[in-house]
Fold:
Amino acid sequence: MGASSSTEQGGSPEQREAESLAASTGALTLLQKSFSNLSDSQTQSIPITSLQEYFELSIDYQSCEASFKPENFPALLSHLGHSIVDQFFTAEKGGLNWIAFLNGYTKCCGRMPTSNALNNLLRLFQIATVKSGATTGLQVESSDEDLKINGYLLPADLLMLLWMCWVMSWNSSSLTLSKGKGKFGLPDINNLVLSAVSSCAEGGAELNIWDDNLLGSDIQLPVGKLHVWVLKTVPNLPDCLVQFVHSRLSNSVSQQDKLEPASSSTSDPGSIAHSNTYLLTSGRAWSISLTLRSTMREEILKTCFAPDVNEVKENILYRSSLHGKGLNRFWSNVEGYNGPILMLISAKLEDRSCIIGVLTHQAYENKDTFYGTSGSLYAISPVFDHFTSSAGKEKNFVYSHLHSPGYEAKPKPVGIAFGGSIGNERVLIDEDFSKLTVRHHAYDKTYQPGALFPNQGYLPTEAQVFDVEVWGLGGGKTKEFQNSFQKREELFTEQRRKIDLKTFTNWEDSPEKMMMDMVSNPSAVQREKR
Structure:
């Protein structure tokens, strides 16, 4: 009995309930088309082996940014398709019927608390790990109504879990799925692993976060603490599984050919390498995307997954290494961009390099007071964390002040700052973009408390700025508006320059000549010509 005909006839109570739950996700029409394409026309069911193959992923492990590479990750990834079907789709001997197909989708992609979705992800990782022949410290207690995960993960296990989510996210972001083996690089996301280690491990706050041996250590990360870390730091992580399953079924609707084992989108391993010339590498961009919603997330994911370097360049507004350091150079590149802006600052702190970030949701303005409506601070490297605005407290999101024309009895500081107050800014970049000052969160009632770099103390810390990058996350229309704005400004500047040249074509009549004469001989009598 086909899906469409069953729906029209009403079906059994069990079928109506399954369809109602699927409809609540907004994907019922998609599922009907997908089932029609995937199922056998005679048995009206999906062969379980075909569905397993369709969810499979393969990877070329040759290109990898990270220095630490767990050896069994390719094997784990190769069992992902079978593990998804085993966990979510209950099939009979003849295959997967319409009701079982709906229930499987709802079990994976239906509306549920984030903690339940995270349990689904951990369970999937545990099944795939066991199928690959490896072991894990996860302990699963499963029932028809509840799924409980206990135990722990090692740092290397967490890295593989995050990489599994990265690959699913990569594949979901591809417009087309290729046939054959996918080739792409794996990003360096050690900052996420180290963040979990410092938050979840016993005595994690006292660990030397720059120790290269931490990733391969036997430090246990309890599942309960991992739940808290995910919900606070990377709340969108469970969505990677949901988006992957949804995108694969969507692709089954758009494909004209019979199903073949799908794979990761083919991409030159250099597609990650080209992003490494920026502070916002693929791994860092993906880390930030796990904290974002709406269009900002889609825009920053272009940095992760765009195969063309020109697509990555579209979003960058300013680079101090390219455009030159200083507030004036920064201003000439960001002025007129009226949308969300991400700034990354690379600096040297006590012989260690670190990167912090700031996301603002509005345009930069030349003001001598704080302004803004919302924003977030990020610790990017070596440990990842993010701090959103504190609701109901101060609104000192951004301070960006250039030199004011004319005389000021009490001039305001020149530079860019985030949080805190004037004179006690939480993050402050000086006018020349040479010095970064970071203060303790006790000075700041705008952003949530937390350290922006490891072992941050109470006293203000000054650091040498290496590089500054600014990325626009407002989409194509926002960039087009800025381009139009800058063209108008260039036109006005050119017109003013032409007027000045026509007015002062005679050197003897120019104000510059008069000023030079007064400086050279201020006591000389200036007679008026008659």
About this structure: The radius of gyration is 29 Å. Residues 4-9, 175-182, 256-271 have pLDDT under 50 and may be disordered. The chain has 20 helices and 13 strands.
